[in-house]
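Table S2 (continued). Query chain:
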Amino acid sequence: MQLTLYTDISLRVLLHLAKEQSDIPFTIGYLAELFAVSRNHMVKIVNKLGKGGYLNNVRGKGGGIYLGRPAEEINIAEVVLLMENNTEVVNCEKNRCHFIGNCKLKTILNQATDAFFSHLRQHTLADLISNETNVNVPSF
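Corresponding output:
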């Protein structure tokens, strides 16, 4: 399974905010530039994370973006599931597969996806930033 760029950037935004732990809020413009995505794309990410309770988005003068809860309370699997529209690895019906009814591929891949999310459920945002001295933000 490959995460979308939307989810990837979402996790990186949360990581950055958790790592910096600043009293000064970050702006959408700053985050968009930092992660080399359009401002419009960052607005969508920040809004969805805000609606999910992961960010506090304060509008107006002195406003900005903060973590919505402590890093220890932000579960990685929950964030990925919020941001990903579809976690299905294969769609047999869409592709008009000739093996429907006689194939276990979808079952096996669904079990692998369940294991993937089970592992992610064991980790929080705090786990991702612990014991790190510096977070390097790669360019995309």
